[in-house]
Each structure stands twice: as structure tokens, then as C-alpha cells.
Specification:
This protein is mostly helical. The protein has a single domain, classed as Arc Repressor Mutant, subunit A (Orthogonal Bundle). Helix 1 runs antiparallel to helix 4. It is rod-shaped, with a radius of gyration of 23 Å.
Length: 117
């Protein structure tokens, strides 16, 4: 069983490559596409595209299906959800830390402005 951390790592590893990001952008704009159509604008071989697609599939960012001899690819929006959740948790933790630091700073400032008796 693949745990959540491994899935998030797989998503970020898949998104680290600019070709894979471009593939996802193309899929997000046009729905399901045959591999040959998807590969057309790239200046790399069809086997190289297939390797990129395998990485995207293992990261659960795309789904594939066959229709006869044609391999059809479509983006899985849900594949990004775990990475989005991870980013949201990091962002929330950062904001909490920032607000805590601001509270300490304001308290220290208020203490320094109190008249001494």
C-alpha cells in the first residue's frame, strides 16, 4: 500500500519535469487525447513521451484507456488533490507561525511603551 507521503512525493516528482507539466496543461485544455496527438508538439520521440506518461500515470495524474489500437489519455484532477492538501497544510502552518510571531512582537512593543513607576 502506498501511503499519502509517497503519493505526494510522486506528484511533485512528476511535476518537476517541464515536459510532463506541458502534457498536463494540454490535457487540461482538451480533455481526452490519443497519445500520438498529445505527442505532436513535442520535439521528443514517442517512446520518450510514453515514459513521461508512465510517470504521470504512476503519480495518478492521468488515466489511460485503449480504444482498439489507440491509447487515450486524460487528466485526473483528483490526482492533484493530495498535493494541494499538503500545500494548504504548509501554508496554514506558516500563517499560524507568522501570527504567533506578530503577537509576541506586539506584546513586547506594548510592554516597552508602558510607563515605569
Amino acid at each position: 500500500m502506498v501511503n499519502n507521503r509517497d503519493r505526494v512525493s510522486a506528484v511533485f516528482a512528476a511535476l518537476a519535469d517541464p515536459t510532463r507539466r506541458r502534457i498536463l496543461v494540454r490535457l487540461s485544455k482538451g480533455g481526452e487525447r490519443p497519445v500520438t496527438v498529445l505527442a505532436k508538439p513535442f520535439q521528443i520521440s514517442l517512446p520518450a513521451i510514453s515514459r513521461h506518461l508512465r510517470v504521470l500515470k504512476e503519480a495518478r495524474l492521468i488515466d489511460t484507456r485503449r480504444k482498439g489500437r489507440i491509447h487515450l489519455i486524460r487528466a485526473r484532477a483528483a490526482g492533484l488533490q493530495e498535493a494541494k492538501n499538503w500545500i494548504a497544510r504548509c501554508t496554514a502552518a506558516g500563517w499560524d507561525y507568522s501570527f504567533d510571531a506578530l503577537d509576541r512582537l506586539l506584546e513586547a512593543d506594548a510592554e516597552s511603551k508602558k510607563p515605569r513607576t
